[in-house]
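Form 7-S
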Amino acid sequence: MTHTHFRFLYGLWFVVTGWAMAAPGIAPVRAQAQAPERLPSFEVASVKQNTSGDSRMRMVTQPGGRLVVTNAPLLGLIATGFSVADSQAMIRSRVLGGPSWIDSERFDIDAKAATEFQPTPGGPSREMILMLRSLLEERFKLKTHRETRDLPVYELVLARADGSLGPGLHKSDFDCEAYIAARRGGAPPPPQRGPMDPPPCALMAGPARTIAGAASMPQITAHLTVRMERPVIDKTGLKDRFDFNLTFTPEQMPTAAPPPGVPPIDPNGPSIFIALQEQLGLKLEPAKAPMDVVVIDSIEHLIPD
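Output:
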């Protein structure tokens, strides 16, 4: 039996520790008046507080329309249910208000839909996310509204005045549409890759490198959003897919040794900002942009099942 794992990085796909509340005092740019959304719901669901004290979290979907969440802070679940954050740090500025316990208290969910979750290209099932939101509104009496606020972002631009690419950024001629169609049609998976081989039509990330195989700019900016813990907006104008092996020195060096076949990290290497410019010919520029946020109007403690 197969199942799909997600890290709690938000939009849903992810694993997070230690969320905190957003800093108060940021004035809204404009509020968004919205009609109540009719949400799909799970057929059956159990929600229980987790008091294990464990720091590990998990969210997994299984065949038959089942969602299992273990040891997740409610703040992260809210961010997932509203698809408003793509990294741990971003949750603090994208979900506002609410009592402190929504960050400190953790919960388990075992829920099942009446049918299989409808797939959503490029990410977790939107139907499943809306069911999660409906469950939070039902069991925690969650009431919210959305606003748009100017928040810090990075704009990804070409670093060179002549528009040339860096020596490590190579246009790919791999046909990702044909590859994806073949896989959906039941074609066998590609041969097993080595630890430094790029994945097809995707990116592979470690603490000090990102390896891309025919990756699109939306994939690259989504990856950088998670890496930088701030939204990254593509301003390059590049439409091609690219191969690259980006290496840099992280701000915090990992304590564990690298896996077999992966080179050690150079402690004197460039930062990711410099590496992007020197190796790929791309640059991250700080900016501000209007972003969707969720404001918690009211929420209640869980009533035990």
